[in-house]
Amino acid sequence: MVVLAQPAALDGFPLVKTCRLTNNFFAQVPIIDLASPDAKSLVVKACQEFGFFKVVNHGVPTNFISKLEGEAINFFNLTQSDKAKAGTPSPYGYGIKAIGPNGDIGWVEYLLLSANPQFISQISRSIFPEHPETFSCAITSYISAVRKMACQVLEMVAQGLNIEQRNVLSRLLEDEKSDSCFRLNHYPPCPSELRALSGRNLIGFGEHTDPQIISALRSNNTAGLQIFLSDGTWLSVPPDDNSFFIIVGDSLQVMTNGRFKSVKHRVLAESTKARMSMIYFGGPPPCEKIAPLPSLMEDGEESLYKEFTWWEYKEAAYKSRLGVNRLCLFERS
Ligand code: GA4
């Protein structure tokens, strides 16, 4: 169970957005057993239809997950001034309510980190000067196990799409220059009197797509995550702390020339329980061209997108509001 002290600084609730519910009660999130023989085709189908699926038999050791969850609880239970030792997010650091540099606000506090082990050691020394290794080891071992699982998924994608070069996508996450990041989110319960006051649900993390290739999300057993379906409804994702949720990012949408869709998702605040999530965002090296994979293109098929590098896309993303369709800027007319 997650036991977290309520951070006083989240008091300014009127700043946080609310939403009405337009829930889809019929659709279901695809569940894929990574060890099953038909996993490759199911992964491709889920990426095309939802841009989202849940994986079981993921191979990430449970002790890595529980260790990191414990460390995350310790971190969020620190005093505000101790959490602030991680620095204000620019983009990495500790953030509370403010998401990104353009005025987006949510009912959330978070720690956003580069997935680079040197960065993780350095920031751990700032937060826990006396015993930085416990925190940094928990994060780095978790990230390497989750990266491995994400690479396995991307290799299944390549195989499922009949691409000969199996590592055509996974190599980007494995590259030592890979620009991947990692986020710990804590969504405190939204007091029921606040919900009653507004008559709406508080937004924990506003709707958005992930700019990277692929994201792997794990949360505790508290609900809140929703994905946006092609019929215009939101689907609430039942929480499952034993599984991972895979999210197709904008870059994978481009690399598949629109065959896969990056999925819009958001998190609503729960009224009684804290939600904690840990997300690995697998990104390519900064200089990598983000373009449709040549081996996927059919005769005469043209790219739907202008040419750009990951660096250029990331720069544009950080200039945009959370909820905008960032890929629009890069579509060919
Ligand atoms: C969304 C996905 C990841 O959480 C993230 C976010 C980033 C941030 O929190 O700093 C961004 C957001 C995310 C996209 C648009 C910009 C940048 C906040 C924001 C308003 C870490 C990422 O890579 O892009």
UniProtKB/TrEMBL annotation:
Pathway: Hormone biosynthesis; Plant hormone biosynthesis; gibberellin biosynthesis
SUPFAM superfamilies the record matches: Clavaminate synthase-like
Keywords from the UniProt entry: Dioxygenase, Iron, Metal-binding, Oxidoreductase
Catalysed reaction, written as an equation: gibberellin A1 + 2-oxoglutarate + O2 = gibberellin A8 + succinate + CO2
Gene3D superfamilies noted in UniProt: B-lactam Antibiotic, Isopenicillin N Synthase, Chain
Residue intervals of the Fe2OG dioxygenase domain: 177-284
EC number: 1.14.11.13
Pfam family, one: 2OG-FeII_Oxy
A GO molecular-function descriptor: gibberellin 2-beta-dioxygenase activity
Protein family (similarity comment): Belongs to the iron/ascorbate-dependent oxidoreductase family. GA2OX subfamily.
Function: Catalyzes the 2-beta-hydroxylation of several biologically active gibberellins, leading to the homeostatic regulation of their endogenous level. Catabolism of gibberellins (GAs) plays a central role in plant development. Converts GA9/GA20 to GA51/GA29 and GA4/GA1 to GA34/GA8.
Protein name per Swiss-Prot or TrEMBL: gibberellin 2beta-dioxygenase
Source taxonomy: Eukaryota, Viridiplantae, Streptophyta, Embryophyta, Tracheophyta
